[in-house]
Amino acid sequence: MLESWVFWSLLAATMQAVRTAGQKYLIADISPLGATLVRYLFGLPFIAVYLGWLLVDRGASIPALNILFIAYGIAAGFLQIIATILLIRLFTLRNFVVGSCYIRTEILITAVIGLTIFGELVSGLGWMAMLACVVGLVLITISKSGRLSDLWNLSSLYGLGAGLAFSLTSLLIRQASLSFGIDDAMFTAALTLAYMILVQTVMSLAMLLVQNAAELRVIIRKWKPSLFVGATSVVGSAGWFTAFTLERAAYVKTLGQVEFVLTLAISILYFKERPKKMELLGMVVLVSGVILLLLAP
């Protein structure tokens, strides 16, 4: 039987790929900060509907916000904004795929920080699974870039920075959601997500008003693709937040790498692109890592 956290992780990974494609379309006309604002601003109505539905469905009310939830939520919101800006900046670089590989190091970074700061233990098989996934991703990246020398450049710095910020965000989200002590992962995850999106909208809007207020007019003109980004972002985030509440963040992040395999599979099967041997090897290693993860305690 498929475990709940596995379902939510796969849903999140799929929607993240779709949302990222939408953001990549938007950056042709707006800045990375503007594209980041779109994700939160246009996601507000969707998370409001989702949280409202959960409140009615469960006959519940919003619990009192504790200090840990407020602090973790603000910190996670700020770090996710930074990570998103760095990710979008990668889209403007020719060697985007290299930076994307470095973002995937968030798997191991999340596990190490989770263990040292929050005491989230990972089994030996779990460590092997995460390492296999990272090795597989590196092999795929080397295959695409063609040269080992391409593994360290400006996109690498953006990728590492984004990976670290995303890792801290994931761990803080889990702690914020768990701080309520309520045995309802969907509800506490939705509440955490609603709070974070509200905080992030205020933060990114303030930053944009200071940097380039005129860009708001461009965002309004692009309301249709912006709504698409907002909707897919909320669905994906709801998946991530719920999975983080149910399982260790490091495991959720590792399983989420199936997004990379799906993208490659589509390029091979649909676009008839011919994969290189090292690329195929990387996919096999990555899938093996995911299988090990599902077997890990």
- Shape verdict: globular
Order of helices and strands: HHHHHHHHHHHHHH
* Rg from Cα: 19 Å
Q: How many separate domains?
A: 1
Q: What's this entry about, in short?
A:
This protein has 297 residues and is mainly α. It has 14 helices and no strands. The longest helix is centred in the last third of the chain and has 28 residues.
Report what the structure shows:
- The protein is mostly helical and 297 residues long.
- It has one domain (4-122, 149-246).
- The chain has 14 helices and no strands.
- Helix 2 packs across helix 4 and helix 8 crosses helix 9.
- It is globular and about 50 Å long.
- The protein starts with a helix and ends with a helix.
- The model has no long low-confidence stretch (mean pLDDT 83).
List the helices and strands and how they pair.
Blueprint: H1 4-26, H2 32-41, H3 44-58, H4 67-91, H5 96-103, H6 106-118, H7 124-145, H8 154-178, H9 185-212, H10 215-221, H11 223-246, H12 249-255, H13 258-269, H14 277-295
